[in-house]
UniProtKB/TrEMBL annotation:
Residues 24-155 form the GCVT N-terminal domain. This is tRNA-modifying protein YgfZ. Gene3D superfamilies: 2.40.30.160, 3.30.70.1630, Aminomethyltransferase beta-barrel domains (3.30.70.1400). GO terms for biological process: iron-sulfur cluster assembly.
Length: 353
């Protein structure tokens, strides 16, 4: 996080740990307001990797699950970076600003991803670096987010994944049950924007933004779950994070085989966990009647629910999810209930045919 931005957030009342905003003094209230109110959130807990150079697009095309040719100053995309066995090492949003591609992913994933992807540059004319301090980034969410932003920024994207560049800002429309936007810009411009939004919007901590991702069914891969899932297990194909027409990339053979020849036995569900204890990515699910030799499932990401307990995304054996008789960790663990996602497999499959 830029030191000047850090000082600005502290002056605005932010409580900060490990370079991320935990809250603005009342986390429980913040967790409630995200469901119906206008909120703003610092996104410094998300890092940025920049990819530049003559061969940048071709290089990324051979590494990632989505078609980089669709990324422009008008369109961003979700994508993933896989092993040769098709297991996701990381996933991220990709956007383009000026001549640079940016990959937005958790700070905890940045170093390992940067190190690995640099190994494959070889003779390509590409420069890949940590660009987390290059742009300040915030999230804006709420039923009146579009109305509020329209009074400040001249052009906003109309559909999910669309992007605009206006008034010095890069604005991306994100999936969500409410209007949601990610906004990127230079330090002084972002200070001004925050000040304008802060008049009517409630500032919230980083966990609240991830809570909105969970409600939207958008997974985040963390170090605890790196190499745990192929993209389809985490519904990446359902949220436009995988292209099956683009051609070869690392892990493509496994991903394509699952799509066209395999039978997906696990997929991602939204769940509620009846516990007040912290729930972490990678924690295992337990099902007494489960017949899966690998266990019934695993937590992808989780955050506290404003109504109590934890809301989470979990990759679960489909039969066990349908039985809906699960617990966290073991037979003495808290009860888990399977809840609905804002999309269904049937709807998305029909839309892609």
């Amino acid at each position: 996080m830029k030191p000047e931005w850090l000082d600005f957030l502290k002056d605005a009342g932010a409580e900060i740990e490990d370079n991320q905003v935990t809250s603005f003094g009342n986390l429980q209230r913040e967790q409630r307001v995200i469901h119906s109110g206008l909120t703003i959130c610092d996104l410094s807990h998300q890092g940025l990797i920049s990819v530049d150079g003559k061969d940048a697009a071709d290089f990324l095309q051979g590494q990632l699950t989505n078609d980089i040719r669709d990324v422009s100053e008008q369109h961003s995309q979700l994508s993933a970076y896989c092993t040769h066995k098709g297991r996701m090492l990381a996933n991220f949003r990709i956007f383009k600003r000026d001549e640079s591609f940016y990959l937005r992913l958790p700070q905890s994933q940045l170093e390992a991803t940067l190190k690995r992807i640099n190994m494959f540059i070889l003779m390509s004319k590409v420069s890949i670096r940590d660009a987390s301090n290059a742009l300040v980034r915030i999230g804006v969410s709420g039923p009146k987010a579009h109305e509020q932003l329209s009074s400040i920024i001249s052009a906003l994207p109309a559909v999910v994944d669309a992007m605009t560049r206006a008034n010095g800002y890069t604005i991306i429309k994100c999936p969500g049950t409410l209007h949601r936007y990610e906004i990127y810009g230079e330090l002084e411009a972002m200070k001004t924007l925050w000040g304008q939004l802060d008049v009517n919007a409630a500032p919230v901590g980083a966990s609240c933004w991830e809570g909105l991702d969970i409600l939207a069914g958008i997974p985040t891969i963390y170090p605890q779950t790196a190499e745990a899932f192929i993209p389809q297990m985490a519904n990446m194909q359902l949220i436009n994070g995988v292209s099956f027409q683009k051609g070869c990339y690392t892990g493509q053979e496994i991903v394509a085989r699952m799509q066209y020849l395999g039978k997906l036995k696990r997929q991602m569900f939204r769940i509620h966990i009846d516990t007040s204890d912290v729930v972490n990515p990678g924690e295992k699910l337990f099902g007494k009647a489960s017949t899966s030799g690998q266990g019934p499932g695993e937590i992808v990401n989780a955050q506290m629910d404003s109504e109590g307990g934890y809301t989470a995304l979990a990759v679960i054996n489909i039969a066990d999810a349908e039985a809906n008789n699960l617990q966290l960790n073991d037979e003495n663990g808290p009860r888990i209930s399977v809840e609905t996602l804002p999309y269904t497999i049937e709807e998305k499959q029909k839309a892609s045919q």
